[in-house]
Amino acid sequence: MEPLEVRDVTVRFAGLTALDAVSFTVAPGTVHAVIGPNGAGKSTCFNVLSGVYKATSGSVRFGDAELTALRPHRIAALGVARTFQNIALSPRLPVHDNLLLGRHRLTSSGFVSAGLRLPHARREQRRHVARVEEIAEFVGLTGKLAFPVGLLPYGVQKRVELARALCMEPRLLLLDEPVAGMNSGERQEMAELILSVRDSLGISIVLVEHDMGMVMRLADRVTVLDFGRRIADGTPAEVQADPAVIGAYLGTEGT
Ligand SMILES: Nc1ncnc2c1ncn2[C@@H]1O[C@H](COP(=O)(O)OP(=O)(O)OP(=O)(O)O)[C@@H](O)[C@H]1O
């Protein structure tokens, strides 16, 4: 079990400093939230962790691996899976096939042997299908496997996204606003699912989230950004009582 260590990460876009020497550590097996007012740098931070943006300076380490210079697929191959703020699934394909696509990086049989249905490729395919079914059961999608994703309610689609990320067998999961656009019942279900991913699978989770109630309920630790700088880092109770955080959310200078 490895920590994710973000050290002095700075991201500049043409004169604008979106992240300014931000540091935090995600302890193994914990839920770590990154929050902050609009424009604070949350999405930029998320994009650096997943390799979409390259930090101008600083480092991101996951265990022994330095992620800073790696492209998104290399970061994924190291066991860091992500979900998207806007659902990024194939809407016409059944849930089952979307989940199977999530296992792509773990597939060793090449395209040709799979196409020719060679015995080793068939065996491997059966193993992946069995694992997809297990993961579907874990996230409560067993009855939905045959449905095209696009026909499912939004909250269920978000669960399919999470399941697809789990299909990569990650050690770290990056969740981009996992409850955005959900009704309160769906939010509750997603919160329970995130906690069971941490507790039953032991996967570390970093989430960027606007829903403060959700963050306070879910997170073991919270990093608060404002204008690209880290203004607080602590337990939910600690950051909630921090004058700098209160100031940032009220639009004042804080301390
Ligand atoms: N690709 C980009 N090019 C130029 N500026 C950018 C880019 N991405 C983000 N920014 C700027 O960096 C700053 C931080 O933006 P970011 O989207 O990371 O904040 P955020 O906390 O995720 O905001 P929100 O809560 O509104 O999504 C903003 O001033 C934004 O305009």
Textual characterization of the structure:
The structure is a single chain. The chain is α/β, with parallel strands linked by helices and 255 residues long. It has 2 domains: 1-79 and 170-255, 3-Layer(aba) Sandwich (Rossmann fold), CATH 3.40.50; 89-168, no CATH class. The protein has 10 helices and 10 strands. A 6-stranded mixed beta sheet has the order 6-7-8-3-9-10, sandwiched between helices. A hairpin with a 2-residue loop joins β1 and β2 (16-26). α3 (95-102) runs parallel beside α6 (154-166). The chain is globular and about 60 Å long. The model has no long low-confidence stretch (mean pLDDT 90). Bound molecules: adenosine-5'-triphosphate. Adenosine-5'-triphosphate binds at residues 13, 16, 18, 36, 38-44. Residues 4-252 form the ABC transporter domain.
CATH class of the largest domain equals Alpha Beta
How many domains? The number is 2
Strand content: 15-25%
Q: Can you give the helix content as a percent range?
A: 25-40%
Largest sheet: 6 strands, mixed
Strand segment count: 10
Q: Can you count the helices?
A: 10
Strand order of the largest sheet: 6-7-8-3-9-10
**CATH homologous superfamily placement of the largest domain:** P-loop containing nucleotide triphosphate hydrolases
* CA gyration radius, whole angstroms: 19 Å
- What structural category arises from helix and sheet content? alpha/beta
How much is the average pLDDT?
90
Looking at the structure, the CATH topology of the largest domain is Rossmann fold
Q: Give the SSE order as H and E letters.
A: EEEHEEHEHHHHEHEHEEHH
* General form: globular
Ligand roster:
adenosine-5'-triphosphate
How far from one another are the termini?
Answer: 37 Å
